[in-house]
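A common beginner's mistake is to predict each chain separately and then try to dock the pieces by hand. The better habit, illustrated here, is to supply every component at once so that their relative placement is modeled jointly.
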Amino acid sequence: MVVEQRGPQSAPPGRSPQRRRLLGLALLVAGLAAVAVLSLVIGARSLTPAEVWQGLFGDPGTDQQLTEITLIVHTLRVPRTVLAIVAGLALGMAGAVIQGHTRNPIADTGLLGVNSGASFAVVLSIALFGLRSPVQYLWFALLGAAAAGVVVFGLSSLGRGAGNPLTLVLAGQGVTIFLAAMTTAVALGNTQSLDVLRFWNAGSVQGVGYDVIGTASAFIAVGIVLALVNLPALNLLNLGDDVARGLGVNVLAGRTVGVVAVTLLAGAATAACGPIAFLGLMVAHVARWITGPDYRWMVPYAGLLGSVVLLLGDVVGRLVVRPAELQAGIVIAVIGAPFFAALVWLGKFRQA
Amino acid sequence: MHPGVRVGGWSWVWRPWVVLVTLVLAVATFLVFCVSIAVGDFTIELPAVFRTLIGQGERVDEFVIMDLRMPRALVGLVVGLALGISGALTQSIARNALASPDVLGITFGASATAVFVVTASGGAAVSSAIGLPAAALTGGLLTALLVYFLAWRRGIDGFRLILIGVSVSAAMQAVTTWLLALADIRDVARAQAWLVGSLDSRSWNEVWTTLWVTAALVLVVVVVSFQLRPMHFGDDVAAGLGVRYGAVRAVLLLCAVLLAGVAVSAAGPVPFVALVAPQIAMRLVRSPVPPLLASGVFGALLLIGSDLIARVVLPNDLPVGIVTAIIGGPFLVYLLVRANVKRAA
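With all components supplied together, the output reads:
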């Protein structure tokens, strides 16, 4: 008898895959909670869990030390933890959904110019309109991300059939180089935008206010709903457009909802934290390895994994160059590049 | 049919059209070169430029042209040539029209080291003509070596090379971003100017180094490239035709990397010249594969033409890289659309 190998959780007999997957999701949520605690505790000033608890829910009264702890927890640790969870969820889900829609295992918002579209829009908005607060340029980042995404995905999926992975990557590389040059052209003449740009470009979850997190989360929430609604159709679309149509899927609607969802998720996350490459790609592959190709399970897994990885990246970034910090986006890129190279080595990407 | 030409052990096909186009391109390049050294804050008439070039100009013209403008134009010429040939080699080896030396990791590796040097030493290294180019070259070559090493798995294939190159480039980009975020804002502005590729204030020293290294590499490429054509048919056919494709590919790849490295160290990572020049040259000479020499000549034309545009048309002395990006971006889109339409057909 031949047993199909799907991954590490492949079927011991008698237990339903459904239950295992639910259990896995529960484990991931527990893991996320654990990392979130780490994220609250670790930093330039280490706090004990008890102190964090005090800071979160206690009344500082007039005690100066307690007031300080409350301040750290509320203005520094909580926002960055929340943002890492939300943005990680968004980027992870976006990565899995976009890989499904392009039927291309290399699809990743960072590699494909979406991020550089957002940076260009941010710099342009600062230089042209003198915008100062992140809440204002968040909208432009969203617009820029959407435009660049449409160009790369649209052009590389013109004609029939799924895009060639190589063409997609090279197109993304080209668009990135083009936009980077344009961004520099604007930034060179405008020191203020250059200064904002260099920090925003590093991809950090730190120092973002509640106002930005709130706005971005609203977009991301809509994106998550759209992505989840889209999943059954995505499963069928993966059989090929013709088969999907035969099974009663509205192909155009399915694709449109998917692309809108990805743009909202990736655009809002990028707008809030800056460009974070490789995250969506990495977690999508890990999620596929755990759950198999069913997008209804794979996408939620990828989302939760995204949160865990981004949060971990942020915590690691706080530890490695103490007391300074390494931005989460840089940690992720430095981990992500070897991961990607390993996938290439294992032959996970095939030439179309 | 084109007649064959045989000289000793070497033989090639006589294609009048290719020779004609390459010559026309060379003449055009020379003209743009002359205009480029004629135009500036103090514009010199073209006849005076020619007189100066053959050593019979006036003292003032000679100073302005030979000491101020010539090094810049010559560096542009050589860098363009190097980038064009490097691009043609990369595209031939990867067998993909969208490949350029950038994906071999050179550009981003060089950028990371250059930014490191600029930000770590403040202005000191920038003023020395040796420090920054040497650092950029070293960084670029080491990164390319890393890419090659990582992509090696019982030989090199274009597909794996590009993907690994892109991922290593992304990591290098992250390092660059990090360095920029740490640095002083004045150093950042200086580093950014380098990052987009510029021909500002070159000296004769830089001309000579760039020129000799490029000339030596081009010579190697021309000799080895006799083996290149059969490789467009794929490894098996090439092996059947008696080409040691592994060795040829390694040598040509090395030359492509070195050419791009020299170009990057001389002018910074000027974007798109290596991508665009071979593709346009290929269409002009009606060749099915990127022609080496014509690509180089067109690269030179593109670069000094863009530099001329940057100086004359654009405001506040923007670097040449902006112009090549403006030209290259739409062309990339065109290539993409075409590649897809062809696949769909």
